[in-house]
Input
Amino acid sequence: LLNAAYYDVPQKRQRLFYIGVRKDLNVEPAFPTPNSTTISYGSILEKNTKFTFLTKKEVDKVIKHAKQQKLKGNSFGFHYNSPLKPFRTITKTKSSNALIKVNDLYRYPTVTELKRICSFPDDFKLIGTFEQQWARLGNAVMPNQMKAIANTIRQEILKWN
Output
């Protein structure tokens, strides 16, 4: 169980990874060593961009829906994302967990911010609607985390330096 936040991804995202090694290689599976620090999502937010903030009515609706889902036991509920910490897990669908609070106003991250939260480069091209791009990022394996896994396999298992 690896948390992307400890592999240069400004997002808390725990995922289960299996690494198998053929017996004839006589090598044990290895996993990357986690970093001791994390990246705050506040450090990757867009600057000088005109954002669309939710109205009070929209925020109330999002919070009400999140509370209903939490009562059903099938949601993370509503949480405030502290800009000093990694972002909460970006899921396939836009959710209340992904709201950014700025001076008592709430907004969803931009596609550029979502890419950064997932450790994709700014010039990585996504197509489709905002919701489709969001879903692709929510389903993705985080590139920086996968890079750490691949480097560990290359160095520790395959012994390629």
Observations:
- The two ends are 26 Å apart (CA to CA).
- Strands lie at 2-3, 14-15, 100-102, 105-107.
